Amino acid sequence: MERFSQLESKTKFLILGAGVIFLLIIVAVVWGVVVRSSDSEPLVLTSTVRDQVNQITQRCSEASNPDECIKNEINSNARLQKNASGCVTLDGEEKDSCIWLVAYENKDEELCREVEDVGKRTDCLDIVFSHQAKNSGDASLCNKVENEQKKNTCKNDIRGPVTSNDCVERYNDADFCSMVSLREEAVEKKDPSICLGAANEDLAAQCYDFAQVDDPDFDGLETVYELEAGSDPRIADTDADGLNDNEEVNEYGTDPTNEDTDGDSFSDGSEVNNGYNPNGEGTL
To answer: How far apart are CA 196 and CA 199, in angstroms?
Structure first.
């Protein structure tokens, strides 16, 4: 009788334990579905945004080109509110451009992933990852950047220009690091012909260009002009707005030390990338 009682107690305990485990599994599954649903649909057209889009559609109905009017106003609205939910009412490339712009302004990694075009999505993520790396001062985060040129720029902006002392650690490329040593020697001795000792013509050209021109951050703007503009000759994009200092000074006439030259709350780089004038109203 006593054995039967012990067996019954054990059976009840096992049933109770199995019930608790089953309940935990159900909770986990439901939670996973909710989280995945939340992650997969970050862009929700709220009633407020839907009303705004309806108002835009109404206003543009009498325009000479209603579709163009609607697209421009939705983009403008998304930029001003820094909210991409209205972008879902656009299609294809127009939708991507709208989402890209808001993602860029907010440096929003998850929003970048909503861009369908692979090239634009990668570009958006590269910008966000570079921003994260520079903000944290952690150059290892630059490795998340896919574009090699942007990755190197990211690392250089944090660590400064590569030198013979840290080249192997940063690039692990014997020929390139040999060129860096030659470059330093050529600059010190003011003798560009030393660059001819590089492993190939491309590396020799890189060395020669550096030895001939004082441009340590390789942005195309010599140190003397960087100092004149107030930019940092060691950082290719001093104000981190997506345009390097040379582009700002010589191509767009923007301020390389101010990420938003015209003060409209949108960085110079995002305006240029989306065809807007970074120096004021209108398009490029």
So the answer is: 8
State residue 276 phi and psi, 5-degree precision. -100, 155
- Domain contains 113: yes
Task: Check the CA dihedral 241-279-56-274 and report its sign.
Answer: negative
- Count CA within 13 A, CB hemisphere, residue 92: 1
Q: Is 142 helix (H, G, I), strand (E, B) or coil?
A: helix
Domain coverage including residue 191: 161-248
> What average pLDDT does this structure show over 216-231?
86
| 14 located within any domain | no
Q: Which pLDDT does position 278 carry in this prediction?
A: 93
Say which DSSP state 283 is in.
B
Question: Do both 69 and 145 map to the same domain?
Answer: yes
Instruction: Report whether 245 contacts 236 (CB < 8 A).
Output: yes
Q: What is the mean pLDDT of the chain?
A: 83
What pTM was computed for the model? Answer: 0.54
The count of structural domains within the chain is 2
